[in-house]
Amino acid sequence: MTPSYARLHRDGGLRRRAAAALALQSPCRLCPRACAADRAGGARGRCGTGTAPKVFRAAPHPGEEPPLSGTAGSGTVFFSGCGLRCSYCQNHPFSQGGAGVEIGCGDLAAVFLGLQARGCHNINLVTPSHFLPQVLAALDEAAGAGLDLPLVWNTSGYESPAALALLDGCVDVYLADMRYDSPAAAAAYSDAADYPAVNREAIAEMWRQAGPLAVDARGIAARGLIVRHLVLPGGAAGTAGVCRFLARRVSREVTVSLMAQYVPCGRARDDPVIGRPVTPAEYREAAGRLAENGLRNGWVQDLPAPGGAAAGRAAPLLGERFECNLPAVGLSPAGRIGYNHAVTVDRRVPAGGGEEAR
Ligand code: SF4
């Protein structure tokens, strides 16, 4: 299937958008922090980054959601820095700690092409928002050199309307977090009281742009929105409110990945609410919220075994971080939602009609 950005590459749209994004970077208002850092002048904003793309790791990832990882892996590129400051971030060494290597846009394009050469199913940009101009420039260069994989925008969901407007038509799959329902929780754990309002607007826009998840003949994601929701201890993520919003303001058809992998790490270890793992009862209750709101497309996970990550052992950084309950289909008696194969088949992207099945 031809990726969305191919047309924008051909008509010069990617180049123009990269220039427009660059204008948003100094003073910087690329993300909702709008901290006005003069990044072109060498300043670093709240996300801690300058103008050179900084990458921690790029590699095929076997542990993303099934239509992303498929059989050959998702081509993940983990960017350093982040506009959010989550106290429990498992990626702290590079999201907030500065680890990573600064490269040029041409190098980034070569990274994309390298992942394609390794057989990855897509290019999966993890927390890329603060490098939007550089990503668009690299995408333009890579498309000119033969990149034709779907582009996955793997985001905290804290995106500005201006950034999303520049991504319209560039992104094939949005893989976006909904972290909180309440401003108080967002302020306490991510220093971003405006997260719920910003995030809801962003999710609605992503749905408008990408719509429901569609897969190709092999079951690989070709287009659409996948919402990730990490269950937090003590109901801190506001799962009920998040599910209600999705069902009422987005669509019951939206695909939801309900994540069980919360680990109390970093500053969160000492927190009175989130300084412990999620209990099985809490996770079951969260899964029940999906069901009671009619959200039937997506996945739930098994909680890590006692003594595993959720019992306090740090999860291996960038290791197998996602285990899906395949091949469960639909809602099981235990309240478990598996990948909804029936819907997937219905929405399969046709292999004919001028579009090549990958
Ligand atoms: S992307 Fe970084 S520098 Fe730009 S507004 Fe957000 S936090 Fe500030």
What does this structure look like?
This protein has twelve helices and ten strands. Strands 1, 2, 3, 4, 5, 6, 7, 8, 9 and 10 form a ten-stranded mixed β-sheet that branches. The chain has one domain (5-346): TIM Barrel. The protein is 32% helix and 14% strand. Helix 2 runs antiparallel to helix 6 (132-144) and helix 5 (105-117) crosses helix 6 (132-144). Residues 308-358 have low confidence and may be disordered. It is an alpha/beta fold and 358 residues long. The chain starts with a helix and ends in a 12-residue tail after the last helix. It has helices spanning 5-10, 13-23, 66-69, 92-95, 105-117, 132-144, 161-167, 183-190, 195-210, 239-250, 280-292, 341-346; strands at 54-61, 74-79, 101-102, 123-126, 151-155, 173-177, 214-215, 221-230, 255-259, 297-300. The structure holds iron/sulfur cluster (SF4). The site of iron/sulfur cluster has 14 residues, from loops.
SSE order and pairing:
Blueprint: H1 5-10, H2 13-23, E1 54-61, H3 66-69, E2 74-79, H4 92-95, E3 101-102, H5 105-117, E4 123-126, H6 132-144, E5 151-155, H7 161-167, E6 173-177, H8 183-190, H9 195-210, E7 214-215, E8 221-230, H10 239-250, E9 255-259, H11 280-292, E10 297-300, H12 341-346
Parallel strand pairs: 2-4, 4-5, 5-6, 6-8, 8-9, 9-10
Antiparallel strand pairs: 1-2, 1-3, 7-8
Helix pairs in contact: 2-6, 5-6
Iron/sulfur cluster binds next to loops.
What's the average pLDDT?
A: 85
Low-confidence parts lasting 5 or more residues at pLDDT below 50?
308-358
| Binned strand content | 5-15%
The strand count comes to 10
What is the CATH first-level class name?
Alpha Beta
For the termini, the CA-CA separation is: 6 Å
- Name the CATH architecture: Alpha-Beta Barrel
Can you summarize the main beta sheet?
Answer: 10 strands, mixed
**Number of domain units:** 1
What's the gyration radius in Å?
A: 19 Å
Bound molecules: iron/sulfur cluster
Number of helices: 12
Q: Categorize the overall geometry.
A: globular
CATH superfamily: Aldolase class I
Provide the CATH topology.
Answer: TIM Barrel
Class inferred from helices and paired strands: alpha/beta
- The SSE string, one letter per element, is HHEHEHEHEHEHEHHEEHEHEH
